[in-house]
Amino acid sequence: MKQIVNGRILTPNGWLENGSIIIDGNKIAEVSNNNTPLENAEIIDAKGCDIVPGGIEMHVHGGGGRDFMEGTEEAFRVAVAAHMHYGTTAIYPTLSSSTVPMIEAAIETTEKLMAEPDSPILGLHLEGPYFNMKQAGAQIPEWIKAPVKEEYEYLLNKTNCIKRWDEAPELEGSIDFIKCCREHGTLPSIGHTRAKYHEVKAANEAGMTHATHFYNAMPVVYKNREFKEAGTVESILTEQNMTVELIADGIHVPPVMLKMVYQIKGVERTALITDALAGAASNETTAFDPRVIYEDGVCKLADRSALAGSIATMDRLVRTCVQQADIPMEDACRMISETPAKIMGVYDRKGSLEKGKDADIIMFDKNQELTFVMAMGKVVRQD
Questions:
Q1: 106-136 pLDDT tens trace
Q2: pTM exceeds 0.90, yes or no
Q3: Are residues 76 and 45 located together in one domain of the fold?
Q4: Which phi and psi (to 5°) does residue 175 adopt?
Q5: Are 67 and 85 in contact (CB under 8 A)?
Q6: How many angstroms separate the CA atoms of 264 and 52, rounded?
Q7: DSSP per-residue string spanning 141-168
Q8: Residue of 23, 25, 62, 63 whose CA lies nearest to 46
Q9: Same domain, 28 and 154
Q10: 374: domain range?
Q11: Closest by alpha carbon to 24, among 38, 14, 7?
Q12: Helices (H), 20-99
């Protein structure tokens, strides 16, 4: 039995002052108004910090010098551990556009690690390869194509671990792909796209309700001769039920735009992601993809034609929102926990500090610096 005391607790009803969290094994046994230390409990002193739900990483390619595209158990373990140290307590390893054998290797590793007790891995996220070549960004162009029905049906029938798959809905065969994903319990997400409003709307109606790294690899309003045409961004903003994710490193999306999306979509439909590559939580100076360089606190293609991903960690997302975008601490924290949990369908056990939920808990000091990480009741970090 553990008891966390002496901190401000973020609950679904707001901040709880002078309370405590009681942890029994890997679950939250109670969120109490009482902060009196319990007998026979291991007391954890929050030292006045904010106690909030652990971060749920929906979109991350690697960390600690390793990339999930490697597909190996070692690479997965190193990358996951690196991000856990910085506040990620649940994770969806992400593959950029890959070949079927690469996806199969990642499936095998994901299934093995998900089966372990208290695993932080909740499923696999495929970012591609069904994308618009004109919005390829840092995706490997040789592997980009329109949806191949035999291919995606084979993979979705092979495993239950693919929880999300990103695609450009203007491509031929998209509606069938979206519906197939939904039938298999996989979240289809719009990304690396030049979809127009009618294509976004049709995709949304078919079940594509989420947008991949919003604002990145998708056009904003543009000119068609002398006339303006709504871009993918405006189309997604118009579809009220669509959720979005933002790379909140302060570089991929400028802070003023983070604030704008937060104001339009609200906490309930805005999640924060790192989209981190292997260089995150690492001293690594070279990327898995030889075309990628690390510069200006971000990943870029070497010709500087596009951003290629971030080297951010979960704690940085919170700091960026609070310190640069003037977003309240409680909302920034909800956008790394509650919102991703609801989008990915795991809010029944993760995403908030409530009795009976998994004991995934992190703490920030008054400068939004991370001081503590607990995942499934196990202390990962305590400064």
A1: 999 999 999 999 999 999 999 999 999 999 9
A2: yes
A3: no
A4: -60, -40
A5: no
A6: 24
A7: GGG--S--HHHHHHHHHH-S-EEEEEE-
A8: 23
A9: no
A10: 2-51+366-382
A11: 38
A12: 73-84
| Helical H segments across the chain, by residue range | 73-84, 100-114, 149-158, 174-183, 197-206, 232-238, 255-265, 314-324, 329-336, 338-343
What is the DSSP track for 300-325?
Answer: EETTSSSEEEB---HHHHHHHHHHHS
Query: Given CA atoms 209, 97, 110, 105 in this order, what sign does their dihedral have?
Result: positive
pLDDT number for residue 286? 74
Answer yes or no: is pLDDT of 327 > 90: yes
What DSSP letter does each residue of 181-219 carry, written as one string? HHHTT-EEEE-S----HHHHHHHHHHT--EETTTTTTS-
Q: Which two tokens stand for residue 142?
A: 């040789």
The answer on pLDDT for 230 being more than 90 is: yes
Query: Per-residue pLDDT averaged across 353-380, rounded?
Result: 98
Q: Report the alpha-carbon distance of residue 271 to residue 210 in Å, rounded.
A: 10
> What secondary structure letter does DSSP report for 236?
H
Looking at the domain assignment, is residue 46 inside a domain? Answer: yes
Q: Say whether both 185 and 253 belong to one domain.
A: yes
pLDDT in tens, 81-90: 999 999 999 9
Residue type, 124: L
Residues 303 and 377 in one domain: no
- The tokens for 120 are 């932080």
pLDDT above 90 for 305: no
Using DSSP bridges, classify how beta strands 2-5 and 42-45 pair: parallel, antiparallel or unpaired. parallel
